[in-house]
User: Fold these one by one.
Assistant:
Number 1:
Amino acid sequence: MSNSSSFQKILLDQLPIPNRLITSYATLGLNEVEVMVIIHLIRSFQENKYFPTPQEVADRMTITEKECANILRKLIQKGYLAMKQQENEQQQLSEIYSLNPLLEKLYTETPVKEEEQTADGTIF
Amino acid sequence: MSNSSSFQKILLDQLPIPNRLITSYATLGLNEVEVMVIIHLIRSFQENKYFPTPQEVADRMTITEKECANILRKLIQKGYLAMKQQENEQQQLSEIYSLNPLLEKLYTETPVKEEEQTADGTIF
Amino acid sequence: MSNSSSFQKILLDQLPIPNRLITSYATLGLNEVEVMVIIHLIRSFQENKYFPTPQEVADRMTITEKECANILRKLIQKGYLAMKQQENEQQQLSEIYSLNPLLEKLYTETPVKEEEQTADGTIF
Amino acid sequence: MSNSSSFQKILLDQLPIPNRLITSYATLGLNEVEVMVIIHLIRSFQENKYFPTPQEVADRMTITEKECANILRKLIQKGYLAMKQQENEQQQLSEIYSLNPLLEKLYTETPVKEEEQTADGTIF
């Protein structure tokens, strides 16, 4: 019953979060609760649930379903979260969320953080 | 300048967060802002900074230095965050934070979430 | 159909591998094919398959089932891989593999790599 | 000196590897040693070394520098690894490797693995 039996559990229980989301959300106009909604979405996606209800997201949070719904709406309005239609094998359409707009902003636009630059004032 | 040149950036920019932290923090009595402080600590540790100041943590957040200091204090009081003394090569002592108490709670104690159980209502 | 629609796919498709396994396997007496068997096991575990057959592991590799079985046996003999009995909810016993012995060697024993040490000559 | 002091070490020591690389390399015509060279490159990139020498890569492997150089050449010829020129702040050019061609193949082309498809025999 040694603790080391937990090593594998830790290894297998990682959720990958974009570093730049953590370093840049304040610059993107997001607060901590809104970022946590995004992290809960990433977690849901990893379990192949691409359209969790506000209730399902709020269940693990300290906010109400209504507050969660408002944040999801705000994320869509700000252009960080998208709703898409997806067709399954039975040609049925269903809605899914996508965080690609956020990832695109984080990784292809002019960097929001100066982090990786060596600001020396000589860049023209 | 294709987007695919960003693929590698995304791959290399992941911060590993314990899944159980995300699913269990509410049960552990933590709120979203407090979890985000923990995530900022993990990020700092990954950059080999094991004792960031409240100001350094708050710099990337939407809270003040004072609010951040209060949260760090609360995390220590709740037994999730530890402060330890570490000796470097020059036999100099310095303080470092450690999240091992939190990880121990998450991965070795009776699970705080029912997640891996088969909830059948018969548990007493 | 922009490439950026792949960003989320990359984010969600990461397999966490212990860095020290990659830096230390040669020192541990393992070669590249043996490490890849370990990586395939980690991948299998992440899909909640804790006892893949040699055939299942070899299916994604360029080695035969027999070579794979030999490597699994060698990993057990070397004390890196364990076989354990696990009881499920129906009190049925089944075999599972565990990589905890390897992780214990990598993370609790005297480091196999000098990487994080500051060799000061006083260790005898 | 409990083992649980290793929990944080494990959490902070993860190397993210694309799952699809592990499931698809055989289909891509790569063997285990060649994939391990790629994994060593990813590790090197994470340490901000974007142009390791064959010797540096081979140092942690069980192959010779020459074998490693041959594999790097093969990866470039197969179109999985690219060499690019990068300009630093002092307008100096240097070579860097990029795994974007491989990631592009893994994540934007027709999937090499049937994994996410529902093979129903009707795809002609």
Note: The interface with chain D takes residues 3, 6, 9-10, 13-20, 22-23, 26, 31-33, 35-36, 39-40, 43, 60-63, 103-104, 107-108 of chain C (CB under 8 Å).
Number 2:
Amino acid sequence: MVIQKRVNQIRKFMDVNDVKLSIVWEPDNQFYLTGFRAISYSRPIVTLLEENEVQLIIPGLEEAHADEKANVDRIHVYYEQYGLREQVLTYIEHLTNILQQYPRNTKIGVEVGVLPASVYLFVQNMGFLLVDIGAKITEMRSIKDAHEIELLKVAGHLSDLAIGESLKNVRIGISELEFDSYGDRLLLEMASKDYPDELIGYADWTCSGLPRSEMPHLYSSTRKFMDGDVVVHSRQVWFNNYRAENERTFLIGNVTERQKDLLKLAIEAQQVGMELIRPGITAGEVDIACFNVFKKAGLADYVQHRVGHGLGLSEHEEPYLRFDNDLILQEGMVYTIEPGIYVPGVGGFRHSDTVILTNNGSFSVTKHARDFESMRF
Amino acid sequence: MVIQKRVNQIRKFMDVNDVKLSIVWEPDNQFYLTGFRAISYSRPIVTLLEENEVQLIIPGLEEAHADEKANVDRIHVYYEQYGLREQVLTYIEHLTNILQQYPRNTKIGVEVGVLPASVYLFVQNMGFLLVDIGAKITEMRSIKDAHEIELLKVAGHLSDLAIGESLKNVRIGISELEFDSYGDRLLLEMASKDYPDELIGYADWTCSGLPRSEMPHLYSSTRKFMDGDVVVHSRQVWFNNYRAENERTFLIGNVTERQKDLLKLAIEAQQVGMELIRPGITAGEVDIACFNVFKKAGLADYVQHRVGHGLGLSEHEEPYLRFDNDLILQEGMVYTIEPGIYVPGVGGFRHSDTVILTNNGSFSVTKHARDFESMRF
């Protein structure tokens, strides 16, 4: 039902823009419009939207899976096994067959920002006119409905469990990856108990000590925690594909006064953002308000990134909380609030929480303690 | 040194094809040519190759990281923070500045199979002629050098530890995700002990019981193991970005004779492939030889996929072991051997190992027991 509503919205957009068929390539967009998500890698999966039909092109090894999960009208399968030489062997053959039903100069919708150039050129060379539908899908995805919000709440809850368990196990001598794994293990145990037969995933990125914590985004490594470390820990947990982000910066043992002060400042900046964000203000205003906390402290030069990104099916979703974004925020949008500061020789400092905009404010689906005292080990 | 050699190979290709500048977009390709790999998501990173210079365009939050890791001649940074409004704010601005130094109709290399259409069109609209360099990089990456093979051996060893530990903990009532996590935890513990300050990653996909095990590729869920389950467990472990794949199908408790027979058959088919693969034969021959094991048993209709894929930096790499691929295999290629069979109402059966081709045969970097008796719990 929700999916039907989404498909109808795209169809309306197609109708207004005289687009007869849309090719949806990005896996999260396809999930959003069909309910089907597969591990694809080297075997393309394509969703095709027309006025009266939704079709899916899939590789043979996803046939049973798609039959079970995909809310589509028709499924086209391509095969790669020896015995089926007489069958369709590539996705492009199905795509060609479907496109050939339209006359030259028909308008075809594509996600121009993600579709591989080779596919774009292939469709163009068949004589069609290509129109972007990616921005429209992005805009639709930015407003979450009640069901999506319920999934995000569960994801937030599970991320809190995980981060809490990892933090309980902080000690000198364990590696970043071991630290991550304490929380992951409890996450999987609790999720298995409380949410049987569901999809749960997670990712962790832990940057400890110097210089790693100065770099906002690194994969976790086998570096071991040491006395005096600043640790920036990032975590995403997804429940039935919907992601919550939960990040905490913490201090181990004998850290310097400067390190303590910077963590307090990052916490303060985050509070400013979380209290400010609501429908009616612009994305840029939130970014600037947090930035000004660092600026007032004379630390503007050490800010390296915007204050937050949208969240949902993808790791990062548009639109962004960035100073030059004049978008007016709306109810149902989901954002991370994560002002960060990174000072060479001192460390990086950033908390991140996932907030959902309500009709007159916001609430966070991630609730683990954020205060300074809770971040000392 | 290795990286310099790779860059020189691309430059030779560019020279022959009159390409003056190449835009490398795919993250694994960029790592291959610069040694730098970042978590990117919504912030593009671009490598540019010219005759005399390798340049990198990166977002501000990767500046310190790239300074430390990237083997490039010049780094261009784009910023997104409020205080730096006078700076370059997008990657496309840097790209434009660099491209503008060339006259119209200059040939520009791009990976046409992965570059987003929007970027392709942007470059094309500046008046340049675009030439594919993706196939050349893919071809280069398919032959691993001694250093890459060492990394793959470590990845294989670590995947064996992980899979062994997960299998030690098989029991009724634990979920797929919990099963995965036993091995992951030991992996991280052992890797932290034996390989300090290195990058290690992992991914698991476990499909248990019916109908999940009939579907070759699913994300692990919170479904719990039951008596009589067939379980197809897939695992990749990467060490400094190089991946080994290790998959085992196992049986829990009271399974049927048919299920036992099918597992034995899948093991036999894999043995055929592992013994056959060597330089000088074609990719297709390996696929067909394994397929024929299933065909002889009257089960050709239940094969759903090719026998293997290349492996290295990416989850799947070209070229593929597929019946219609006439490519002659060479020393230094890396392949998974994973013939599978999937019978509705019975289950799926597939082992996968990662083999490296030597001058006269091959060896597997994944060594966990594969025999039938070791797969019963």
Note: Chain A touches chain B through 82 residues (CB under 8 Å).
